[in-house]
Amino acid sequence: xxxxxxxxxxxxxxxxxxxxxxxxxxxxxxxxxxxxxxxxxxxxxxxxxxxxxxxxxxxxxxxxxxxxxxxxxxxxxxxxxxxxxxxxxxxxxxxxxx
Length: 98
Prior knowledge:
Layout (H helix, E strand, L loop, with lengths): L4 E4 L7 E4 L4 H14 L3 H17 L3 E4 L9 E4 L6 H14 L1
Helix pairs in contact: 1-2, 2-3
């Protein structure tokens, strides 16, 4: 499982690794959610981040770069009427197709 850290990119800057650790019970919940929806575990974390970002800042659009070698950003949109499962599937597509 590759959820120990993820690149964080600010427009005009280069990607940086931001290390983090999840508590064991949170990791298990992430794994269960991924299995239940048939998506990768990093997609669960990305969807949660995007949903939280929308909830607090009402920012609907986000550019996501799947990895340090992938230079094609994927555009993701989160709106107030989107179900979390929809955001989760969009995050998974963005991470798997770049």
